[in-house]
Specification:
This protein has 266 residues and is of the alpha/beta class. Helix content is 53%, strand content 12%. The protein has one domain: NAD(P)-binding Rossmann-like Domain (Rossmann fold, 3-Layer(aba) Sandwich). β1, α1 and β2 form a beta-alpha-beta unit.
Length: 266
């Protein structure tokens, strides 16, 4: 009677895998959804060894019917859904004038529509469960809007905007909505970047290596946000202050972004 089921897209690696492992520690049964077949099956087997029910489902969030198919498979196997985490996503980097339309479409189909499809497929099920929640994984990029990341910034800002909208739409149904906006932490984000400058990739890797928190830390913060009914997840004091500065002193924040841009491209 106390069974809780969490569905996580992009759960075969990185933050998604950390979320699956942390959720299992809290007694959740886990639906591991990903395009990585072998890694996803391995992740599910490891979770089963921890004593929870876990199953891998192949899911490409860029495909129109993929999330509906996933929903049907999850309900058939688990019978319910309590938490949906729209985590699957890809990175991108490049000036607007250098970014191809194909890259914009990739960001749109995976990072934005992947989240939209997940919400549309699972929200009717979540409304049936008391204490249910939707978590959309955005990025601090949605708030910082740094130069040289136009398509990624716009996509993640769209996820944030969608989450704000859903928060109001689902309030009367008792479905909690959270959005995670972590800054750089060690994950495989750079591996998903196509047509990106090697120098910028190296800089991003350095920032990730210097991060004071890990994917496991972010996963814990996200699950705590679900439990505590927290909307926005900002992962450290530095990004919390940067968020406030961007809102209170936008011109100062803008000048700091220009300085950062000069350091990156010198």
């Amino acid at each position: 009677m106390n069974k809780r089921v969490i569905v996580i897209t992009g759960a075969a690696s990185g933050l998604g895998l950390a979320l699956a492992q942390k959720a299992a520690e809290r007694g959740f049964d886990v639906a591991v959804a990903d395009v990585q077949q072998e890694a996803g099956e391995l992740a599910a087997r490891e979770l089963v060894s921890r004593g929870v029910d876990a199953r891998f489902f192949h899911c490409d969030v860029s495909q129109t019917d993929a999330l509906l198919t996933l929903k049907n498979q999850v309900i058939e196997h688990f019978g319910q859904v309590d938490v949906l985490v729209n985590n699957a996503g890809v990175g991108s980097q490049g000036m607007l004038t250098d970014t191809t339309e194909e890259e914009w479409q990739r960001q749109w189909q995976i990072n934005v529509m992947g989240v939209v499809r997940g919400c549309q497929a699972f929200i009717p099920q979540l409304k049936k469960q008391s204490g249910s929640a939707v978590v959309n994984v955005a990025s601090f990029a949605a708030l910082a809007l740094a130069p040289g990341m136009a398509s990624y910034n716009v996509a993640k800002a769209g996820v944030l905007a969608l989450s704000e909208t859903l928060r109001g739409e689902l309030a009367a149904d008792g479905v909690h909505v959270a959005v995670a906006c972590p800054a750089f932490f060690k994950t495989n984000l750079v591996d998903s970047m196509q047509e990106s400058d090697d120098q910028i990739k190296q800089q991003i890797n350095r920032w990730m290596e210097r991060s004071k928190y890990t994917a496991e830390d972010v996963a814990t913060m996200i699950l705590d946000a679900v439990k505590q009914k927290q909307f926005m997840v900002l992962c450290d004091q530095q990004t919390r202050w940067q968020y406030r500065i961007a809102r209170w002193f936008p011109n100062y924040f803008y000048k700091q972004k220009l300085k950062m841009m000069k350091r990156m491209f010198r």
